[in-house]
């Protein structure tokens, strides 16, 4: 016997449909909640540079014409904060765009020269030694060139920002995975913070991160890029001794 309802479905089938619906609704609710949280965090983050701009504008209105030193300080601060805001907005847009997987443009990319170019750029910017080691001259990866570049750019930039010493970038190929280690010998990250650094807008030291122009969006973007290529970023860190970020991408 099977109980047939009006639409011709059995009780079991209806029950299954019901639980699939419930799961879908739960997922929708969750993603809606995440969006809400993102909008609220983003507004909060944008308020800080805006209020600095407002204060300096008021200062300019009051003293700008009579005191050149106030004029210089205020215009400099307004410029810095405006740049920070546009960088943050650009990163937010990147994050939103990344979430549409169909945006990825896969092509065969030789990872070695890509990393070497990236390292060369940072060596000039930070005037720091970045040591590159690889047993391969050629390592072809099917990936979105621009996004992969962005991922390494974020991690090498962080390694330089959060340390004063040399940085090591090492490429390896293990068990069907391309592994790139980005190692610094800087301040490291405390255990309780390690699990949160991939959260949007999370910064261990907000004030310091502001000084270096940080937004707390770099690592979430990098992790998103790695995952959209079927990979992952992991981190091992010791406070006071440095950090190793490892990017693993299937090859
Ligand atoms: P930010 O723009 O602040 O650098 P990220 O998302 O790239 O944002 O990183 C989040 C936080 O993780 C940083 O603010 C910093 O506190 C910490 N962090 C990231 N990379 C490193 C590193 N190599 N060494 C120490 N701390 C790091």
What topology emerges from the helices and strands here?
Blueprint: H1 11-63, H2 68-98, E1 106-110, H3 111-126, E2 130-134, E3 140-144, H4 145-161, E4 167-174, E5 177-184, H5 191-194, H6 206-211, H7 218-228, E6 232-238, E7 242-250
Parallel strand pairs: 2-4
Antiparallel strand pairs: 1-3, 4-5, 5-7, 6-7
Helix pairs in contact: 1-2, 2-7, 3-4, 4-7
Bound molecules: adenosine-5'-diphosphate (ADP).
Organism: Salinibacillus xinjiangensis
Catalytic activity: ATP + protein L-histidine = ADP + protein N-phospho-L-histidine
Subcellular location: Cell membrane
Core attributes:
single chain, 251 residues, alpha+beta, 7 helices, 55% helix, globular, binds adenosine-5'-diphosphate, nucleotide-binding, transmembrane helix
Q: Termini distance?
A: 53 Å
Output the radius of gyration: 24 Å
- Please list the strands of the largest sheet in the order they lie side by side: 2-4-5-7-6
Largest sheet: 5 strands, mixed
Q: What is the N-to-C succession of helices and strands? A: HHEHEEHEEHHHEE
- Taken from the alpha-carbon principal axes, the silhouette is globular
Q: What structural class do you assign from the helix and strand content?
A: alpha+beta
**Can you count the helices?**
7
Low-confidence stretches: none
Beta-strand content: 15-25%
Helix content: 40-55%
Bound small-molecule species: adenosine-5'-diphosphate
Query: What is the arithmetic mean of pLDDT?
Result: 91
Write a short abstract of this structure.
The chain is an alpha+beta fold and 251 residues long.
